[in-house]
Write a structure and sequence with these properties.
- The complex is a heterodimer of chains A (about 210) and B (about 70).
- Chain A contains eight helices and two strands; from the N terminus they run ααααααααββ.
- Chain A has about 210 residues and is mainly α.
- Chain A has a two-stranded antiparallel ribbon with strand order 1-2.
- The longest helix of chain A has about 30 residues.
- Chain B has about 70 residues and is mostly helical.
- The chains are: A mainly alpha (about 210), B mainly alpha (about 70).
């Protein structure tokens, strides 16, 4: 269901940001499309809260009985969720948006966009899992998750320029996952010279 | 009506190919030279969160929570 929701929403957002022009309005819309994509994937991570809380009692009992160590469950859960519930929906959402909005052409830029998107989606899932792991109830986990999401959005780089904020809070942007992903995608989109991605390595080489 | 200096500046920017990337970056508050840094930090953030997750049972037992 997550995949179908991501695909349908991706097409809807692609139609909303349809064939963006290369002018000032286009710049604003491109930044908005990138920011919205990241916020959507961050919100999608809330689905981790429910599944983890439902499984928690059973898993702790099985760990206590010695069936498997707790870290093995975390590794298995992270891998399965990362591929099925984060990476694939991120691609199903990002690909329609990228091509329908006519973001920067070229295979290198497209691959870079998708790579940052998938990495961001997995990071938000891990963030949600950490919040749930240290929360006793679903209500607490949800409130903490929403607070973290809102602060991430605020300091994500699109709503407010962190350089113009009070120095006492400007450092918060470095805790925002959206900030790193948004800046990386914005540089990938707006930088005139193309960048090349070395396949198989998590490194971008700028020409 | 005389055009304001802002109107003239916007008109002069034209299409995105004509615009220096630094102008766009400055408008959005983005540092155009930080692509590699941002990607590395994003991966480090994800790795750190994963490590915190792995040690959470140990932390819970240390603080006496079940």
């Amino acid at each position: 269901m997550t995949c179908s929701v991501a695909l349908i929403f991706g097409i809807f957002v692609g139609l909303t940001f349809w064939k963006l022009e290369k002018d000032i309005a286009g710049v604003q819309n491109r930044a908005g499309a990138i920011f919205f994509t990241l916020v959507f994937l961050d919100l999608l991570a809330v689905t981790s809260i429910d599944s983890l809380l439902n499984e928690r009692a059973v898993i702790r009992k099985e760990v206590r009985l010695g069936y498997y160590p707790a870290f093995m469950y975390m590794i298995a859960k992270t891998l399965v969720d990362a591929i099925l519930l984060r990476a694939i929906p991120a691609l199903l959402f990002g690909l329609p948006v990228y091509f329908m909005a006519k973001l920067s052409p070229g295979s290198a830029k497209t691959m870079m966009f998708m790579f940052v998107l998938v990495t961001f989606a997995i990071a938000t899932q891990l963030q949600a899992m950490v919040i749930v792991e240290y929360s006793r109830r679903a209500g607490t986990a949800t409130v903490v998750f929403v607070m973290v999401l809102v602060i991430s959005m605020l300091f994500g780089g699109f709503l407010v320029n962190a350089d113009s904020t009070h120095p006492g809070v400007a450092w918060v942007q470095y805790l925002s996952l959206i900030f790193y992903a948004f800046e990386a995608m914005a540089v990938n989109e707006f930088k005139v010279r193309p960048c090349a991605l070395v396949y198989g390595y998590y490194v971008a080489i700028l020409s | 009506m005389q055009e304001s200096s802002f109107d003239l500046a916007v008109e002069g920017l034209g299409s995105i190919e004509n615009v220096d990337g630094e102008i766009i970056a400055e408008t959005l508050g983005i540092n155009m030279g930080k692509l590699r840094r941002d990607i590395v930090l994003l991966v480090i953030w994800a790795g750190s969160l994963f490590l915190v997750l792995l040690i959470s049972p140990t932390l819970r037992s240390l603080f006496g929570r079940r």
